[in-house]
Specification:
Length: about 350
Amino acid sequence: SKLRIGLLFGGCSGEHEVSIRSASAIAQAFQSEKNTPQYDLIPIYIQKNGIWKGGETAQTVLEKQTPPTLQPSGNRWEFPSEVSEVDVWFPILHGPNGEDGTIQGLLKLMQVPFVGSGVLGSALGMDKLAMKTAFAAAGLPQVKYKQVKRDKIWSSPCVFPKLCDEVEEEIGYPCFVKPANLGSSVGISKAKTRSELETALDEAANYDRRIIVEQGIIAREVECAILGNEYPQASVVGEISYNSDFYDYATKYTTGEAKLYIPAPLPDKIFKQVQDLAKQAFVTVDAAGLARVDVFYEEATGKVYLNEINTLPGFTATSMYPRLWEATGIPFPQLVDRLIHLALQRHQ
Ligand code: ADP
Ligand code: MG
Ligand code: MG
């Protein structure tokens, strides 16, 4: 009989719309019988309020590729009946509540195999501070960074200036201020002066208790896709270029703002170094199935620095992750198939 794949998408995060587009692309791969005759697709849509919807509702969201008007009825602990029929879960949720280990914990409790990283890999991949601590322990190259807690930012007027002094001494300008637990560049600012730093810290504190300040570097942004479990494979390396100050939210999601180059025009040695670093990053956080690893290449010094790992990268038809595999010789439907096999393998 056919394996029933539970495609879980939407979710309570700022990346709800991207998740719908990723899920639609995956559903399309299942549609062509020729590609995936061995699977039946069960779409399950998580509304922005956390309530799960199956059946007609989920199907319609996939087809229309936009969120419907919110159905307030339902209960977060009641699941659509199809949930009990799922043989393998394919969660394609980005950001908090989807990419951070929370859903992974739930699926693990269900004792049903699922695509992608488990609780640990997902949690480490989401929290930029925990991620950097793990990378540092593994000796992987990164830019200088500093942890800042929100209570120090929103504290008495005598603590905050001291904190800014510390940042200036330890990190300097320009620096990047980021909430630890988001994605899509939300809440991230680049600061070149004291007053910009103050604003940036306050802005990041609106999003998270945990904040990271990093040394800002001038570098090319390259990305590598990883596929596998214990012995991960690296794709060809891709590069992103844009005209804005950095790869911010608008640049990421406005068509035509960013250009992707696949493969990236890099010296052979750097290309290989990025692939190796990406594999090491994957193993270091105990990721599984898939991940996209983002690396800075500082051309002036010839150095590479690990930026971050994304354990549920964008998976739309035009996203970097599937495009990198396509260029490496694994077309989209085959990629989906491989991920399902990796989920089954890891569950054993
Ligand atoms: P997100 O998880 O939201 O994608 P990133 O840490 O990747 O967050 O930062 C978003 C973007 O900000 C990067 O793609 C890059 O353009 C810029 N950036 C982040 N950190 C640095 C840094 N240390 N030096 C230079 N640019 C940076
Ligand atoms: Mg990220
Ligand atoms: Mg990023």
